[in-house]
TrEMBL record:
Name of the molecule in the record: Glucose-1-phosphate thymidylyltransferase
Lineage summary: Bacteria, Pseudomonadati, Pseudomonadota, Alphaproteobacteria, Rhodobacterales
NCBIfam families, per the entry: rmlA (TIGR01207)
Organism per entry: Pseudooceanicola marinus
Role according to the record: Catalyzes the formation of dTDP-glucose, from dTTP and glucose 1-phosphate, as well as its pyrophosphorolysis.
Gene: rmlA1
Cofactor(s) recorded in Swiss-Prot or TrEMBL: Mg(2+)
Molecular functions per Gene Ontology: glucose-1-phosphate thymidylyltransferase activity; metal ion binding
Amino acid sequence: MSRPRKGIILAGGSGTRLYPITMGVSKQLLPVFDKPMIYYPLSVLMLAGIRDIAIITTPEDQAQFQRLMGDGSAWGLSFTWLEQPRPEGLAQAYLLAEAFLDGAPSAMVLGDNLFFGHGLPELLQAAGQAEGGTVFGYRVADPERYGVVDFDAQGQVRTIVEKPPVAPSPFAVTGLYFLDGTAPERARRVTPSARGELEIVSVLESYLAEGALQVQQMGRGYAWLDTGTHGSLLDAGNFVRTLSERQGQQIGSPDEIAHAQGWIDDADLRARAEVFGKNAYGAYLLGLLGEAP
């Protein structure tokens, strides 16, 4: 029987692109409309059915994250808190989390990424069942900002290029990586790039060289937003507000997902709603139970 997949949220880094607003608070604690940014990547792991999650933060920010999120038990989850003393590339996360993973497959999501779309849980759970590695390609207007997938004439992945001056395709690799238990070992073999970082692309290339990497394309029905700039942070907040107010449904609610998954019961959800008093989020949670605020 295969081991349960564990989750990693990489919420470290210094957030310099968002200065001055991140000079006193971690980027991943900033609001995206009505919830902290980290709720959105957390909800992605929960939709994939993952309950055992390591959260990697800077040493100075960890206490704030813990005050916000606790040990995960409010959502039927288990959190392990890890520190990233210095941001040295995305692949570093697998070295920091190696003991936590203990050979288990993982799903890592970046703490500033937001995903939305009909069928997202099914897409995530299919990736969770796959062998080797699975990443997601998303069509963007500015692929040179990202790792970009290079396809051959038959549509097979040739390589993944990090921030190319001229992009070989418009498909960027999103900040969500489903990798098997060999990821830390592969990360250990990565040498720092010219910018001094352990690049996640190097880990993905090792899977690709063995024919063990799948790139799933997220089509028109999906939204992927990263919130690393002032403009994209505002865009993400407006996106969440528009959808939630138009549809009357929450995006990125760990409370709702935990209840739907059966990880917390009605009494637990009612207790969570009481935490938020009579604000719109608390009223929404009570509405899930058919109760008025």
